[in-house]
């Protein structure tokens, strides 16, 4: 499982010694730390051993294989050397299971979920060859992503980050949707297909985007803060309820409405979205996970392992009702999952991540995703989970966030 806890990512190896320095220089979340390039490492005087450790851990994190990180780092081998080991050696030296070996050796895709655009990192990962340290393409790929997709995160005086530069635009362009693309979001959606040869009809499709007035007064409660190392979980202090409009008062908000924090399909979707945190940061988008049932142990298991953003509790299930046009979208296990090929395919895809999961809590209420513009801008995008495990396509999400940023920039320019 690729945890977003910095402590889990750093582990007990050589990176632990420079952990305070990493935090001091604002490398304080896993998605950003994984993008550290050679220039950034040299600025921190990171040793070759520590560079190798970061490379290994980033690769394992992509494939949800962090349970082997300490052992692999302690072996003294760099990533290309590890990738050239045989299946027998991986099993004998690290006790790696057969399925995990296949995932480790698959350099084309991180555990079945597209973490980066195919035009950048995935194509370069296929080029890994040779056991020498100087020929480590995964390391070069990380550097290339910084220069091609994410800006070099060098630091200025006062230990603050230099603002994202034009290279982030290339990152968003890699996800750019083409002309003629039909959005899967509710703004232009197609009805779900009948199940069991037409004998079972799917839940009705809602045709209209929810008006802002239907959600801005919803009462929510923050259960966790945005993840920072050593941050106290808010579930212990029980923060008072607040109006949902406060979530997007100053910045665009992405709200991921989850059926269950323990559901493997929900965890996989949350993990994929949060892995793009550097891109969302550059677009001025805050990330929120919304749950409709408060089970403290489930919140603690979910945050920050699968999601490092804020988690809010919607006691009245109002966001979930808004997804269904005013009423909850629900489906039964038998008709909605067992007799639904698409839901079973979604489960299989999420299962391939190797993430842990459970069956605690209510699981029949459908979730989805909202993108709400800053202030009174309104709901720019809405996606509903028609089949269990449906995800809002990432290119659509980033396209809408990019459009909102451009609109806000133009509006501010006019005011000036």
Automatic annotation (TrEMBL):
It is found in: Cytoplasm. Keywords: Cytoplasm, Redox-active center. InterPro entries: PXL2A/B/C (IPR032801), Thioredoxin-like_sf (IPR036249). GO terms for cellular component: cytoplasm. PANTHER family: PEROXIREDOXIN-LIKE 2A, PTHR28630. Belongs to the peroxiredoxin-like PRXL2 family. PRXL2A subfamily. This is Peroxiredoxin-like 2A.
């Amino acid at each position: 499982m690729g945890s977003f806890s910095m402590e889990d990512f750093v582990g007990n190896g050589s990176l632990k010694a420079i952990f305070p320095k990493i935090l001091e220089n604002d490398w304080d979340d896993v998605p950003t730390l994984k993008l550290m390039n050679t220039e950034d490492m040299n600025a921190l005087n990171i040793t070759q051993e520590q560079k190798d450790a970061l490379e290994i851990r980033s690769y394992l994190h992509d494939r949800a294989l962090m349970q082997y990180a300490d052992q692999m780092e302690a072996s003294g081998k760099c990533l290309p050397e590890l990738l050239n080991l045989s299946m027998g050696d991986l099993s004998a030296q690290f006790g790696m299971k057969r399925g995990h070996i296949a995932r480790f050796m698959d350099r084309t895709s991180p555990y079945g979920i597209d973490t980066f655009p195919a035009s950048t990192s995935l194509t370069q990962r296929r080029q890994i060859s040779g056991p020498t340290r100087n020929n480590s393409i995964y390391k070069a790929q990380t550097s290339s992503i910084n220069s091609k997709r994410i800006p070099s995160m060098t630091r200025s005086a006062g230990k603050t980050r230099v603002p994202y530069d034009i290279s982030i635009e290339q990152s968003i362009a890699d996800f750019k949707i083409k002309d003629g693309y039909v959005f899967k979001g509710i703004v232009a959606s197609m009805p779900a297909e009948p199940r069991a040869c037409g004998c079972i009809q799917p839940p009705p499709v809602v045709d209209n985007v929810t008006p802002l007035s239907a959600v801005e007064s919803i009462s929510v409660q923050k259960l966790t803060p945005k993840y920072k190392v050593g941050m106290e979980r808010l579930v212990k202090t029980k923060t008072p309820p607040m109006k949902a409009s406060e979530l997007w008062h100053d910045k665009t908000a992405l709200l991921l409405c989850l059926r269950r924090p323990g559901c493997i399909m929900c965890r996989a979707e949350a993990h994929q979205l949060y892995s793009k945190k550097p891109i969302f940061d550059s677009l001025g988008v805050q990330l929120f996970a919304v749950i409709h049932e408060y089970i403290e142990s489930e919140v603690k298991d979910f945050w920050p392992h699968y999601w490092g953003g804020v988690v809010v509790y919607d006691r009245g299930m109002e966001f979930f009702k808004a997804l269904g046009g005013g009423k909850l979208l629900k489906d039964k296990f038998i008709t909605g999952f067992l007799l639904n090929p698409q839901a079973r395919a979604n489960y299989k895809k999420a299962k391939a991540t190797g993430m842990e999961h459970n069956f605690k809590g209510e699981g029949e209420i459908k979730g989805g995703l909202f993108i709400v513009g800053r202030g009174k801008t309104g709901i720019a995008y809405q996606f509903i989970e028609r089949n269990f495990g449906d995800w809002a396509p990432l290119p659509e999400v980033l396209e809408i966030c990019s459009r909102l940023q451009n609109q806000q920039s133009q509006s501010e320019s006019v005011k000036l």
